[in-house]
Design a protein that fits this description.
Structural class: mainly alpha
Order of helices and strands: HHHHHHHHHHHHHH
Number of helices: 14
Shape: globular
Radius of gyration: 20 Å
Number of strands: 0
Oligomer: single chain
Low-confidence stretches: 147-162
Length: 307
């Protein structure tokens, strides 16, 4: 009975949080795109070289505390703005991988130096992932996107260009377009959240600590990174989960790998990405996040004696 309650709570609470995040982020992106800030950023990213664009995207990902699911509306806006795949993919990886929760754990434990090494390493891995995906021609696995749906009653320019609107008009347009986008993506979101809730409710609570005492770190780090792929770990939950596992004696390497992989991938996110990516690009995304989680896990295991 308790597990059923856990599943229902996960579906209702996390589902509501994702809906609010999706609407809020979509509105902010649409507002920015209608004013000079959004346009100047889009122009810089669209005109930048692959390396420069990926670097800017990694910086943007580092300062945006988005979970894996809430990066999807940002990614959709970037793709619609014709920003290069290297930049888009780098942002998709870096936003959840350069993880504020892990940074808090590192600063409060080993110290500021470990956090700096983590951020720089995660940013480099994200940039490399974006460059590799673009250079290997995986742009062919993007699904075609139309323009943002325009709500009824919105007044644009007569030439198809949207002139800089009054804030109230821009806000109304952003709210309507965000709701339309949410309606299109809602079936994917519901399916993903239900599956995620079942995994959350019925996965044995002691599995991670049991594994920690069964396998050596060099085997456990890639193992927990793979186990965490379908899980949904909210950015708000990373710190309490991290402290709980630290208290149970979990090594730093497996802990970092678990939190990064769980925050960077999830079944809800993969289902949402089906609207933007074909399967080979989704697999590339999973491989990139898991690889980053494993490398950063080994880095933590070798450089951090304890929490």
């Amino acid at each position: 009975m308790d597990k059923v309650v856990d599943v229902i709570n996960f579906i209702l609470l996390d589902g509501l949080m994702l809906v609010i995040l999706f609407l809020g982020i979509s509105m902010l992106i649409l507002l920015a795109q209608q004013f000079s800030l959004g346009r100047s950023i889009e122009v810089k990213l669209a005109n930048a070289s692959s390396w420069n664009g990926a670097t800017l995207a990694a910086i943007g990902g580092a300062v945006t505390p988005f979970c894996s699911c809430s990066t999807v509306p940002v990614l959709s806006g970037m793709l619609r703005s014709k920003i290069g795949l290297a930049s888009c993919f780098t942002f998709l990886i870096s936003s959840p991988v350069i993880n504020e929760g892990v940074i808090i754990l590192l600063v409060s434990g080993p110290g500021f130096g470990s956090a700096v090494i983590f951020v720089l390493s995660a940013a480099l891995l994200s940039i490399l992932a974006g460059i590799i995906v673009e250079r290997t021609g995986m742009i062919r696995f993007l699904r075609p996107l139309g323009t943002v749906a325009v709500p009824e009653g919105y007044m644009g320019g007569s030439t198809g260009e949207v002139s800089r609107p009054a804030f109230r008009t821009a806000l109304s347009f952003s709210w309507g377009a965000a709701r339309m986008e949410l309606r299109q993506i809602m079936p994917y979101l519901v399916i993903g959240i239900v599956i995620g809730g079942l995994i959350h409710g019925y996965m044995p609570e002691n599995i991670l600590t049991d594994l920690d005492h069964t396998f050596p770190p060099y085997l456990l780090i890639p193992l927990v990174a793979l186990i965490a792929v379908p899980l949904y770990i909210s950015p708000m939950a990373i710190v309490p989960i991290g402290y709980a596992l630290i208290e149970k004696g979990m090594d730093p390497g497996p802990l970092v790998a678990l939190l990064i992989s769980g925050a960077g991938t999830s079944l809800p996110e993969m289902i949402l990405l089906l609207r933007l990516f074909r399967w080979p690009l989704i697999v590339a995304h999973i491989v990139a996040v898991v690889t980053a989680a494993v490398i950063l896990g080994f880095l933590a295991q070798w450089t951090i004696p304890n929490f």
